[in-house]
Amino acid sequence: MTRDEIHTSLAGYLTEMFEVAPENITAEARLYEDLDLDSIDAVDLVVKLQDLTGRKIKPEQFKTVRTVGDVVDSVYELFNE
Q1: What is the architecture, at CATH level 2, of domain 3-79?
Q2: Where are the domains of the chain?
């Protein structure tokens, strides 16, 4: 899966699950500050990303994730392990 495909899937999840406006979903958008996600939302998002990747995502893999771009990079790394 390419980074663009991951970004497209992630944007769909953010829009569908958390009603984030598509125009706000940029690589630089901060999950908590800009997109107004909370810790429960983050857990729900990780579960959805696990479905996408077919792999278990360890909490430490997402401790440093702050932006949409960080999520894309982390998921991309999972696909390419």
Answers
A1: Orthogonal Bundle (1.10)
A2: 3-79
Q: Which residues of 22-49 are buried (b: 16+ CB within 10 A; e: fewer)?
A: eeebeeebebeeebebeeebeeebbebb
- Structure-block tokens of residue 1: 């899966």
pLDDT tens-digit readout, 13-24: 999 999 999 999
Please state the pTM of the whole predicted model: 0.90
Q: Closest Cα partner for 70 from 32, 19, 17, 31?
A: 31
- Per-residue pLDDT at 61 exceeds 80: no
Give the CA dihedral 61, 34, 17, 47, nearest 10 degrees: 10
Closest CA to 70 of 52, 46, 54, 41: 46
